[in-house]
């Protein structure tokens, strides 16, 4: 029974597949299994069975919450908006500020779990 592979924990792509290779160990050889993302090439460690490889892939922790990083980006973006607005004689700066502002607003909404 093939077990279903979860999406990649790194890039969320669902193109992961189970691979096997035969590796030689001196005079012996061993079959190893692993799961690899077809998009970002993230892969599990080698395991000795197909099921272990799949379990390994599916068990991996989800991505850490991006919030601390996103919060820092948001802070930096807020400052950037201030500077951009201070130079409003340039149309490019103004449209950049507007874009950042709207992204920030969406981010704040997302953090509060609000949905439209
Ligand atoms: Zn991936």
Highlighted features:
44% helix; two-stranded antiparallel sheet; 16% strand; N-terminal domain of TfIIb; alpha+beta; binds zinc ion
The total domain count is: 2
What binds here, in terms of ligands, is:
zinc ion
Beta-strand portion reads: 15-25%
Indicate the CATH architecture of the largest domain: Single Sheet
Q: Could you tell me the mean pLDDT?
A: 83
Distance between the termini: 41 Å
Strand order across the biggest sheet?
A: 1-2
Largest sheet: 2 strands, antiparallel
Unreliable spans are none
Structure summary, number of beta strands: 2
Helices and strands: which structural class?
alpha+beta
Order of helices and strands: EEHHH
Number of helices: 3
CATH fold naming of the largest domain: N-terminal domain of TfIIb
Helix content: 40-55%
Gyration radius (Cα, Å) is 23 Å
Shape: elongated
**CATH class descriptor of the largest domain:** Mainly Beta
Provide an overview of this structure.
By secondary structure, the protein is α+β, with helices and mostly antiparallel strands. It has 2 domains: 1-62, Single Sheet (N-terminal domain of TfIIb); 67-111. 44% of the residues lie in helices and 16% in strands. The protein contains 3 helices and 2 strands, in the order ββααα. It has helices at residues 50-59, 67-86, 91-111, and strands at 17-25, 28-36. The protein has a two-stranded antiparallel sheet with strand order 1-2. It is elongated. Zinc ion binds at residues 8, 10-11, 13, 37, 39-40, 42.
């Amino acid at each position: 029974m093939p077990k279903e592979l979860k999406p990649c924990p790194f890039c969320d792509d669902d193109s992961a597949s189970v691979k096997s290779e035969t590796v030689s160990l001196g005079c012996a050889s061993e079959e190893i299994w692993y799961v690899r993302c077809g998009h970002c090439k993230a892969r599990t460690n080698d395991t000795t069975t197909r099921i272990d490889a799949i379990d390994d892939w599916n068990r991996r922790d989800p991505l850490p919450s991006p919030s601390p990083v996103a919060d820092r980006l948001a802070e930096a973006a807020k400052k950037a908006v201030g500077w951009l607005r201070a130079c409003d004689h340039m149309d490019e700066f103004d449209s950049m500020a507007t874009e950042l502002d709207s992204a920030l607003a969406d981010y704040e909404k997302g953090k509060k779990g609000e949905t439209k």
